[in-house]
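Aim 2 progress update. The chain analyzed this quarter is reproduced below.
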Amino acid sequence: MNPLRPIEDFLTSALEWLHASVGLPWAWAIIVLTVLVRMVILPLTIKQIRSMQRLQVHAPELKALQQKYKHDKQRMNEEVMKFYRENKVNPAASCLPILLQIPVFIALFFVLRDFDDEVFPEYQDMGETFADLGWLGIVPNITENINTHWSGWVLLVIYVASQVASTFFMSTTMDSRQRIIFLALPFVFAFIVVNFPMGLMLYWVTTNLWTVGQGLVTRRLVPKPEPPPKRTSRTAPKTTHPSPDDEAAEAGAPGAKPAGSGQQRVRRRKKKKGSRARR
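Predicted structure tokens:
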């Protein structure tokens, strides 16, 4: 049994509805479907952005904590998890939107792979031709592989550029090594996706461009959390509770010993003894 079959059926129905009922060409139906998918997972994406912002603000504290317990891995893991809970940081939040998109991406791959045999013949009977599977007069057929036409290579270049840009906006909290790896991955994937249908590349490019626009918008609309207060040498020390004698002296209570009176008497006695010795 194919676990992705329900998603494939849903995507097929959504594409047919956008094409037959709304009147969109097949390629534009894929683009609109991509936008709808991103709108559905938008609440998780906003949660991801806020979690990443909190992690970025508290990154110095987290690094200091990891450095402190670097020789005790178990204690370090416990303290890091405690740090996440106290600062309301979910390290897994950045993976949720991607994990939700992976099944959709794979299911759309199978839909487009069998599109010519399972979906399009019904519309051919209604008078449509393979020209209706094109896009903007550039892509001849969204079901053909990328490496079969020059327009596919153009889409591939756009994919790499958009993937790098989306990674740039969504990986601000990574260390330098992880950031370099994620920025290099699109160039590695380029040798794999050349065998993907052009319609699937339209989906991927659209979602990457959505991510870039989302990063530009959320950086202005979603406020960053305030950084924790920094302790400096000018920070006032913690106040200590005064002793009962000090409280009584400040209140002017009778019989209260003023602060430092005993020390002054001892100094006076020492001075008198010194003057007598000189005589």
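The radius of gyration is 34 Å. Residues 198-221 form the longest helix (24 residues). These observations will guide the mutagenesis experiments scheduled for the next reporting period.
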